[in-house]
Amino acid sequence: MTTADLHTLTGAYALHALEPGERAEFERHLAVCPACAQEVRELAATAARLAQAVAVRPPPALKQRVLRRIATERQEPPRVAPLPRSGGGAGRGRALSRFSLAACLAAAVTFGGIAVWQHQEAQDARRRAQETHQRAEELATVLAAPDAEVVTGKLTGGASGTVVVSRGRNRAAFIASGMPKPPAGKVYQLWYDDGGTMRPAGLMDPSAGSDTVLLAGRVGSASGMGITVEPSGGSPRPTSEPVALMNFPAA
Amino acid sequence: MKEAVYIGGPAPVGPDLPELLGRVAKGDQDAFARVYDRVCGPVLGLVRSVLRDPAQSEEVAQEVLLEVWRSAARYERARGSVMTWVLTLAHRRAVDRVRSAQASSDREHRAALLERTPAFDEVTEEVEAGLEREQVRRCLRTLTELQHQSVTLAYYQGLAYREVAELLAVPLGTVKTRLRDGLIRLRDCLGVEA
């Protein structure tokens, strides 16, 4: 597509009417075309007026549900530095390594964003400390179990993972190394593999400061485990190809 | 920058949306409830116009509002008003939902979309958006037929521009430019600044 063609996509982009490939291409162009970015802002604001024209009176029960949910819903920290422009597209979040996150945080000091971030971090840390205290104890018992067996495997994208299974305690833990952050709005979900049927085993929390997680639920007759990328909150069944499948040591 | 006003009730007093959202970003649930009151009507109306199904629309509206809570700290004032930010999230989610649902099912009711009048003409029992609706209706009338159809099919029904082109039997390039010049004309008519 020529640059002139790209300029005319501002309207379709503001209306979410582009195909994914074109959207990625246009977003790369946006990063280097301030005039286009300004036009997109104006056209998105125009579209928002179209939405306000169809406003309805929401049912009161919806408000109750939403307010109940936010009471337990974690908030994300602010984006502290511009995303890298190379690569672009939908997979951009996936490419952010821990190293580049650290670089972003370092940059945030320069941009003055660190105070807000620290505030958020402190709140998160308090909440996490309470939540994870009990899990940490259970995790320790699995890792230290006399019958603990260990399997290490490669994950897609060069990361590696280690599974620790204690048949005696009927629990398993997963230790990730070098796993990139999941894309925005997605999480890594763990699964027990019950002879080909995947049973939910909890979510990984990559911001929790530790890459070691206790799988939720009992090992039971599971022969292995898997990891998939799922929408925030997880799914009842896997909705994407696994990033890893690992077999447990034979019982 | 102008912050969009909620039409239909008394003008909201107290902190404006960017200020409230700043408090939400710090975990203030009361501030979130006030943001909710201002944005939920347009969010639900928009999602419903794209998805049609009331139960599914509420579900998606709820996801959008939870996303506002989660990512309040990510809002950047320089990139547009809070209302625009929220409604952009809402439209994106509704469109994702409708496209993933339609990908697996038929699209033969397509022709019926053309017959479908714009959402604001059908919603008669709701009076929340009276003034805003009048203004938008007036400005939509200043568009050419093709601009009007392209913009409303893409926005209110959530169609990709290829689908719009197919439906209206016009070249792809034409739809692209009609979406852009249609929106530009609306922007000028509505006096939108960003």
* Rounded Rg of chain A: 22 Å
N/C terminus separation of chain B: 6 Å
- Main sheet: strands, sense, barrel of chain A: 4 strands, antiparallel
- Total strand segments of chain B: 0
What is the third-level CATH name, the topology of the largest domain in chain B? Rna Polymerase Sigma Factor, Chain: A
Low-confidence stretches of chain A: 81-121
Kindly give the count of domains of chain A.
Answer: 2
Helical percentage of chain A: 40-55%
Q: What is the helix/strand order of chain B?
A: HHHHHHHHHH
CATH-defined architecture of the largest domain in chain B: Orthogonal Bundle
Biggest interface in this structure? A-B, 52 and 81 residues
Q: Which structural category fits the helices and strands of chain B? A: mainly alpha
**Average pLDDT figure of chain A:** 75
Classify the oligomer. Answer: heterodimer
Main sheet record of chain B: none
Highest-level CATH class of the largest domain in chain B: Mainly Alpha
**Integer average pLDDT of chain B:** 84
- What is the N-to-C order of secondary-structure elements of chain A (H for helix, E for strand)? HHHHHHHHEEEEEEEE
Give me the secondary-structure topology.
The complex is a heterodimer of chains A (251) and B (194).
Chain A: H1 3-7, H2 10-14, H3 20-31, H4 34-52, H5 60-70, H6 92-95, H7 98-111, H8 114-144, E1 149-154, E2 160-166, E3 171-177, E4 186-194, E5 197-204, E6 212-214, E7 224-231, E8 244-247
Antiparallel strand pairs in A: 1-2, 2-3, 3-6, 4-5, 4-7, 7-8
Chain B: H1 17-25, H2 29-51, H3 54-70, H4 82-104, H5 110-115, H6 119-122, H7 130-140, H8 145-156, H9 161-168, H10 172-190
